[in-house]
Every structure is written in structure tokens, then in C-alpha cells.
Automatic annotation (TrEMBL):
<comment type="function">
    <text>Negatively regulates transcription of bacterial ribonucleotide reductase nrd genes and operons by binding to NrdR-boxes.</text>
</comment>
<comment type="similarity">
    <text>Belongs to the NrdR family.</text>
</comment>
<dbReference type="InterPro" id="IPR003796">
    <property type="entry name" value="RNR_NrdR-like"/>
</dbReference>
<dbReference type="GO" id="GO:0008270">
    <property type="term" value="F:zinc ion binding"/>
</dbReference>
<dbReference type="GO" id="GO:0005524">
    <property type="term" value="F:ATP binding"/>
</dbReference>
<keyword id="KW-0238">DNA-binding</keyword>
<dbReference type="Pfam" id="PF22811">
    <property type="entry name" value="Zn_ribbon_NrdR"/>
</dbReference>
<feature type="zinc finger region">
    <location>
        <begin position="3"/>
        <end position="34"/>
    </location>
</feature>
<keyword id="KW-0862">Zinc</keyword>
<feature type="domain" description="ATP-cone">
    <location>
        <begin position="49"/>
        <end position="139"/>
    </location>
</feature>
<keyword id="KW-0804">Transcription</keyword>
<keyword id="KW-0067">ATP-binding</keyword>
<dbReference type="GO" id="GO:0003677">
    <property type="term" value="F:DNA binding"/>
</dbReference>
<dbReference type="InterPro" id="IPR005144">
    <property type="entry name" value="ATP-cone_dom"/>
</dbReference>
<keyword id="KW-0678">Repressor</keyword>
<dbReference type="GO" id="GO:0045892">
    <property type="term" value="P:negative regulation of DNA-templated transcription"/>
</dbReference>
<keyword id="KW-0547">Nucleotide-binding</keyword>
């Protein structure tokens, strides 16, 4: 690395700390030539991964798109955007830990539904109705019945 001001090749690190988000290391550097100070950020280089859609198409994994789907499912529910961002980050992290470069969209959908079911049952039903492509009210009712019976089992287990 060279000084951005004078191009001198020798620098020293004055201070090092985690960035505010915790995804990078912030370093204050000083040029040994011109003595100017500047900040650099060191990040882990992540390998992109792809989502394999139901029709076989491949798309880049897009966290904002996932967030948008969650936002629609939780519209007018008392769920903060921060909670949704955390959910997206957890899902992305879990997907990266698998080490796979290609991930079926069905895997991502199931991860989302599992988390939504615990977070908000109405949002879960909304998401499931689109994800599972419910064709009529019987499909919706069947899913609602599953949620209600699951809730009942949890109550009796306590």
C-alpha cells in the first residue's frame, strides 16, 4: 500500500479497531514520508453465492431482495426493520457456513418460514401463501390449522 497523498511506500499503523458494524477492521495509518494520516478498512473477501430458482435459473444472492420479501410479509405488523435486517444477516451467515456456492431457493424459503413462524404467525402465513403458491382458501386454511395445532401442542407440553 502507498500513501494516497504522496505515494510513499512506507506507512505505520497508528490505531486499529473493529468498525462500528464489526465486519471490518478500521486502521489509522500515517505516512512516513509526508506524515499525513488516513483511514483504511480491512474486510474479509467473501465468495459470492448463487440462488437456484425453481425453474433452474441462477441469480446472485441478494440480501435486499430477501429483506423486501420479509418487509411485505410483515407489513403493518409490529416488527422492526432492524429485526428483519438481523434475520437476513443470520440467514446469509448460515448459508455461507454451508460452504456451498449454489443454494436452492427452496432452502432459503424454508429458513425464512422457520424464523417467521417463531417471530409472527400472521407474517408466516403471508409469506407461506406466496412461497408455497396457495391456490385457494383451503390451502390457506390448511396452513393456519397446522400453526394452530402446533401452538396447542406447545401449550399442553408446558
Amino acid at each position: 500500500m502507498r500513501c494516497p497523498f504522496c505515494g510513499h511506500p512506507e506507512l505505520k499503523v497508528v490505531d486499529s479497531r473493529d468498525s462500528e458494524v464489526g465486519e471490518a477492521i478500521r486502521r489509522r495509518r500515517e505516512c512516513l514520508g509526508c506524515e499525513q494520516r488516513f483511514t483504511t478498512y480491512e474486510r474479509i473477501e467473501t465468495v459470492p453465492f448463487y440462488v437456484i430458482k425453481k425453474d433452474g435459473r441462477r441469480e446472485d444472492f441478494d440480501p435486499p431482495k430477501l429483506f423486501g420479501g420479509l418487509k411485505k410479509a410483515t407489513d403493518k405488523r409490529d416488527i422492526s426493520p432492524e429485526k428483519l435486517q438481523t434475520m437476513v444477516a443470520q440467514i446469509e451467515s448460515e448459508l455461507r457456513r454451508t460452504g456451498r456456492v449454489e443454494i436452492p431457493s427452496t432452502d432459503i424459503g424454508e429458513m425464512v418460514m422457520s424464523r417467521l413462524k417463531d417471530l409472527d404467525e400472521v407474517a408466516y402465513i403471508r409469506f407461506a401463501s406466496v412461497y408455497r403458491q396457495f391456490m385457494d382458501l383451503q390451502d390457506v386454511r390448511g396452513e393456519i390449522d397446522k400453526v394452530l395445532s402446533s401452538r396447542q401442542r406447545q401449550k399442553t407440553a408446558r
